[in-house]
């Protein structure tokens, strides 16, 4: 079997680690810039869901909290719901490192099944994290959802 792939993205945000942590884990804030609510109690071993905000609360991504060290590190598994036990989930790590008045947020999405999955996350994470940066720094997301741009 081929080695699993990973995607790493780094963004610098004028903020404090606590604000970044809250923006990643608060359902209302994730809904504002991500278009989905991240729902969990964020305790190690707990389940988390990436739920639609259209009122249906349908989870489009599910996983388990692997590591939770507020406000500097969050690690979760990442899978499509209903994929069964045969599919191995990927893993997403959020590392939040303060430096003066800015924060370096590094997102590492690893254990990707192949090039198609890597291409999908390579198109998604930059859009989501750009929207997060704008949301944190201005109090509002970008005027258009960046992931819908052709």
UniProtKB/TrEMBL annotation:
It comes from the Bacteria. InterPro entries: ASHA1/2-like_C, START-like_dom_sf. Residues 16-136 form the Activator of Hsp90 ATPase homologue 1/2-like C-terminal domain. Coiled coil: none annotated. Belongs to the AHA1 family. This is GntR family transcriptional regulator.
